Every structure is written in structure tokens, then in C-alpha cells.
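re: ur question from yesterday

yeah so i grabbed the chain u mentioned. its 311 aa long if i counted rite. heres the sequnce exactly as i have it in my notes:
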Amino acid sequence: MHILSVLAIMTALSFVPSNQLSSDFEQTQDDSLSGIQLPAGYSVSVFCMDVDGADGLALSPSGNIYAVSEADGCIYRIDENGDKETIAAGFRNPEGIAVSGSGMIYVVEDIEEGRLIGITPSGDMEVISEGFSFPEGVAVTKDGSILITESSIESGVLFPILSEVKQVDSGGIRSVYSSLYLWSLSDIAVDSSGIVYVCNELSGYGFISASIIRINPSDGSWSVFCRGLHACEGICFDADGAFPMYVVEEDAGGGSGRINVVDEDGVASVFASGFRNLEDIVVDSSGRIYVSEDTSGKILLIRKVNDPELS
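ran it thru and got these C-alpha cells back, copy pasting raw so excuse formatting
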């Protein structure tokens, strides 16, 4: 989501940048990606193009990547060769996407009265629930419950900002967490123990430093897990829900997106920088990293240079 028009009336940008990894950074030799800096031993390539308004990403159990085209209102399935096909269309500002262990796809629409929609792998669609307030992130827990983030910042009323995490399951909808802080919750991820982590996309603007919020869904208790990132937009763990956590900053300054790794103590380090505006990130079982750039419409792939797929 772009919230610059809202943020323009807030105080000027002021944030503490993440510490860089100790590895020397290398600049990619691909002219189209020449601004990207990576740790030594990694490469970046364009995995898929022409995903207009590329936004949410999800990884299926079969290894396919699902990508949201917010501009076109559709969902793409992308195979291992980077070839895409539309599996569902007709959405209004789709943003968050998640895939369950059974292959069921869940998408939320980032609008007032937004919907949670389920899509089967074959493309059949069902509206599971509606009436959410500008939902952005969606995640599926091990027991099959669906978690959704909401934020009122896009409603046009700047203060107070109501942010909430809701759980949808067979028992209905309940609030897991809510706040009236200067936070706007975007993407959401669940670790292997069931603890929930949520991005604050207002992090780094003005005096706002809280970047990742940690929530225990069993009792709603929470804490600030990580500080000092800027415009946190996408978050993920690996396929097993294990640390490190990966977080993308949509715009770390001057329209340049950045990838961070965050350890179990909440310490963040820059992994890669120099992207265009980043929206989301997923990591597959082989450690390959996929990120979406909404301004370029590209899905980028980052992997180690000794990856057998490069041979």
C-alpha cells in the first residue's frame, strides 16, 4: 500500500537505519538491476515480469509462487520457470495472500468493507467473510485459522489510528489484538510456535520507531519485537516458520526498498538494498528469496551463486 499522501501531513522522516551484515556487499552486474547490493556469494535475477502493481506473495506446498497484481485485481500462479497464469480475477485492490498446507489460497482486499476470499488451487472462489477495514495482511495458522490485519489509516481519519488483528475460523471472527497507537499494521507472519509477528508500515516516520509487533494469540499479550526499520511492508519466515525472519522495507529513503534479516532477539541487519519499492517476500525450502517490486511489476529471485539451479 502507498500511504505517502497520508504521511505527508505527519512529521518529517526520521529513523534509525538497520546495521549492515558484516559480509562485503556486491553490486549486481545486470544493468536492469544495477542498483541492487547483495552480500558476497548471492545473485539476483528477474524471476517474473509484468505483474502490474506487484504486491503480496505466497508459496504453495507444491512449490509454486502466487503473486497479487493489485493494479489488475488478479492472482497469478508462477511456476518454477517464472511463467505466470491468472488463476483468479475481479478483485478490488487485492493485497495480502496466504496459502494453507492443503493448498487453499486466501486473499484480502485493501479497501473499506474489504473481503476475505478463498480460492481453490483450480481457481474456484468463495467469499469467506467481508466488512473488514482496509485489510492488508493474511496468514494461516497450523490449526487452519486465518489471521487478518486491519488499519483505519486509509479511511481519511488520521487520528486515532485503529489497528487490529482478527482471527477467522469455524467459530466466527474474533479480535486477537487491537491498538490506537500511531501504528498501521500491514503484513503478518506466524512462527513455528504459533506466535504472531506484524509489520508496522508507519515505522520510521517522524518519531515512530516500532517496526515489528509480537503477539501471543492465545491471550492477546504483545510487545514491540523490533525497532529501527522504515516503512515495513512484507514479512516472512522460512517454510518451517523458523528464524531468521525476513522483512522488507517498502521505501528506506528515496524510493529505495531494502531486505532485512531479523534474529530471534529482534535484532535486524540489512541483507540487501537498492531495490525499487518492495511489497512482499517469501523464502522457499532451498533458501531462495523472492520479492515483489510494485513500481517495476517484477518478482525478483535472490539465491546463492552455487545454487544448483544456476548450473
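noticed a couple things. Residues 113 and 212 are 25 Å apart (CA to CA). also The longest helix spans residues 4-7.
anyway ttyl
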